[in-house]
Every structure is written in C-alpha cells, then in structure tokens.
Predict the structure of rRNA methyltransferase.
Amino acid sequence: MLDGLPPSQAAGAVERLIAAYRGDTPTHAPILRDRADVAAYAAYRMPATFEAVRSALAAFADAVPGWVPGSHVDIGGGTGAATWAVTDTWGGTRPVTVLDWAEPALALGRELAAANPALADARWQRARIGSALALEPADLLTVSYVLNELEESDRTALVDTAAATARAVVIVEAGTPAGYARVIEARDRLIRAGFEVAAPCPHSAACPIVPGTDWCHFSARVPRSSLHRRVKGGTLAYEDEKFSYVAATRLPAEPAPARVVRRPQIRKGQVLLDLCGPDEELCRTTITKRHGDLYKAARDTDWGSAWPPEPTV
Ligand SMILES: C[S@@+](CC[C@H](N)C(=O)[O-])C[C@H]1O[C@@H](n2cnc3c(N)ncnc32)[C@H](O)[C@@H]1O
C-alpha cells in the first residue's frame, strides 16, 4: 500500500504523525486525515500497537482459561491492530466491529484485513467517541492507544459505556506516566462498575504505586521489517514498545498470583524479581540457585510475566 505513494509523502506523513502524537492531544478533528497518513501509521505504529495489545491479551487469556470471546468491538480501532491481536490470541471467527471517526483509517484497515480470513466479515464503521456513542453488547471490547486522544469527559463516558455493554474490557495506553494514569483512572471506573481486574494486577484493590513516584508499564518487542525501517529511518532490527494496560471482566477470572513488574536482574547465582503481589504491595524477591527449579524458572521469566509460572506438568 505504501508502494502506491511517493516515498517522500510516506516519510513526510510519518514525521507529521510523530509530531502530532507528541503534541497536544486531544484533538478536535482526526489526526489520521488521508491515505498517506494511514499508510504511514500502519507501517510505523501499527506493528507496535499490535504487539502491545497482543501482550495484554495473552495475560488476559491466561486469567480466563478456556474462555473465547464470542464477539469483539474495537473502539478507536484505526487500521485494526487490535483486531489482528484478538484473532492471533483466540482461534476461530466471531463478529468483529471496528469503530473510528477517521474514514481513511477504516478503509485501509479493511484492505489489510482482507489478508486475514478471521476478519473477512469484520464491519468497519464510522463513529465518534463521546456521550452519544451507542455500543451493541459485545463479549470483548478493546480500546488501544485511544484514551490519550480524548477529552476527560469523553474518556469517562467511553469507559462507562464499555462497562455497560461488554463482558471483558481491555484498555492499552502508552507506557508513560500519563498513559499509566489514564489506565488507572479507567481501572477504577471499571471496578466501580462491578468488574474484576484479570491482568496485569493480581487483585482488584487499589494500585500500590504511590501516584507520581512510579508507573506500571511493560515492554513488547517489535520486529522491524525493512519497510518499517524505511519509513522510520531506523537501523535496528527491533524496537521495544512500552505500554500500560488493564484487562477487566465480569467473567470469573484467575488473576496471576503475582506479576513481574520490572526487567528481572540476573546476577551470579541469583535473580532479583520486582513483583506486584496479592497482598496489594510491591516487593523484591531474590531467587537463588538453592531454589532449584524455581531458580531456573526465574532465569527464564520476563518483565510482565506471571510469577510463579504455572507448573508445566
Ligand atoms: C493512536 S490511534 C490507535 C489506533 C488503533 N487502536 C491502534 O492501536 O493502532 C488512535 C485512534 O483513535 C481514533 N480516535 C481518536 N479520537 C476519536 C474520537 N473522538 N472518535 C472516534 N475515534 C477517535 C483515531 O482516529 C485513531 O484511529
């Protein structure tokens, strides 16, 4: 699709989008204005938003074993990154609806989805997020990298509408202090609406992070294709996308006993793990060789994983 554009137009669109996302959002008109914008977005951002949503959904799926969503609505879905992440997480097909106010994004999303049989019947619909947004009931609702673009009143209206219509809501934002703050705001609203947090938190009590001192976020590795490197001008073969998320549900959920909330530090004969635990506290634990199999597991675990890992037998 990028090949249909003059190279300078795609690179120019990437630069403009990077500046727009750094600048003042919310905006009162779509940032994704035309074909060059959305092709650029799909090439330089969509791989990263896809990997972030996929990581969040994997943690959520672990907490609701055996559950498969019967329908999916993606709000502010843009070019459809979350729809690809959902079809990657759960096999089979289901009714899928993507809502966005940027028609060029929906059009390109629809074209890309032609390559994914599980999205063959997806509906790509123009809709403006706000108090007038009406949603049909859905099993799973995703809101990926969207809250950042909304006024506070639209953010709260969206989360309340989501809570009233879906059985599971997965919200992903940039892994920044501001992104984390928006996730926590949404998490609190979902809990007040009767939802239970399934991931990343081991509980639905208050987040133990003292506001302003730290922020809960994770990292997803994004392989960079040559196309991605071309539009973004980078040379590394990968990038690490930092994201914050919450997955909450009305379904019976089994949250992780604890979650690794920083990159594990591997020292000689020991691994230091920073954990968010069930007792509503953050703690550091040291696993040494003396712990045997647990030490092996600690060496293999990663930032964002559940701890301890599920026994494999
Ligand atoms: C950063 S993009 C994220 C796209 C996609 N969810 C992803 O993860 O790649 C934000 C999306 O939210 C949409 N959006 C922002 N404000 C909106 C509004 N008020 N109503 C509908 N869509 C909106 C934008 O058009 C854009 O597609």
